[in-house]
Design brief:
5 strands, 5-stranded parallel β-sheet, alpha/beta, about 15% strand, elongated, about 40% helix, 7 helices
Length: about 180
Amino acid sequence: MTSKTILIVDTDTDTIQKIMSTLESEDYLVFTASERDVSIQMAKKVNPSLIFINIGMSGASGLEICKTIHDTETLKNVPIVIITPHGGAIDSRYTALYGIVDSLKKPFTSEELISKTKNMLAIEFVEAQPVEETVAQPIEEVTTQPVEEEIDVKLFEEEGIRAKPTEEQLEVRSVEDEAE
């Protein structure tokens, strides 16, 4: 297994230790930081594949750290998972503004951490690009080709669907065509 690099940004030593020991046992290369400036410099230096940031750190704003990392050109596509006491889905605006793609609800099990890590590393994250507006062009010519597949007529008839028009239906169509 190729060792992926993971950065943990948190001030809680128990959480850091739990994440480190769990991920290192899975052969991930784990770095930690507990201060804003150190975490940003560390992210630039180690170029992690995934970042876990505690959103409610003491003495630092987790969202501010997320934004600074996400605004760094070399790090903007690195997925950020926030560690939070609240679970739930991440609003797409947080992904666009802060690079936050998922959350890990405390307390979490080692299995939840490993699963979340593997899932996040399996997804390729790219910066969202603005959608170009296009103007629909009129279709100048439509061509059709006959279908070359065989149709199971018996199956249609069992369902009460006629695969071939009756003589009467053909006559009705012929009269309608002449009327137009």
